[in-house]
Amino acid sequence: MPENAKVIVRYGPYRACGVVDYRTSRLEGLQAFLNKHGHTVELTKCEDWNTVELMVNGQLVYKCDINNLDYGGDGELDELCREASDAVLKAF
Predict the structure, then answer these.
(1) Longest Cα pair distance anywhere in the chain, in angstroms?
(2) pLDDT digits (tens, 9 = 90+) for 43-60
(3) DSSP designation for 92
(4) Could you write out the DSSP letters of every residue in 19-85?
(5) Domain 6-89: which topology?
(6) Residue ranges of the domains in the chain?
(7) pTM score of the predicted model
């Protein structure tokens, strides 16, 4: 329903090059894709490893493993970005 929703993206740390840390490089495509479709994105860290959760109006609408998102890019070729965007549109 919400065409111009405020989407809170909760993300946890993940292992890259042997180091576990919070990184946003795998979220760039998701952010770009959601922004392109009129949504406002706010990034928030969470404690859960390898997790990305999208919250709209306080409701969890989408969850995936951060390692499954494409690194960098604009999100256009990432199927998970399309799934996440569809989930945001279906939120109450």
Answers:
(1) 41
(2) 999 999 999 999 999 999
(3) -
(4) EEE---GGGHHHHHHHHHTT-EEEEEE-SSTTEEEEEETTEEEEEEEGGGSPSSS-STT-HHHHHHH
(5) Glutaredoxin (3.40.30)
(6) 6-89
(7) 0.91
Buried b (16+ CB within 10 A) or exposed e, 4-30: ebebbbbbbbbeeeeeeeeeeebbbbb
58, amino acid identity = G
pLDDT band at 10 (very low <50, low <70, confident <90, very high): very high
Question: Residue 2 above 70 pLDDT?
Answer: no
Tokens read off for 3:
């065409």
Q: Indicate the DSSP class of residue 90.
A: T
Query: Would you tell me how many other CB atoms lie within 10 Å of the CB of residue 91?
Result: 17
Please give the pLDDT value at position 73: 83
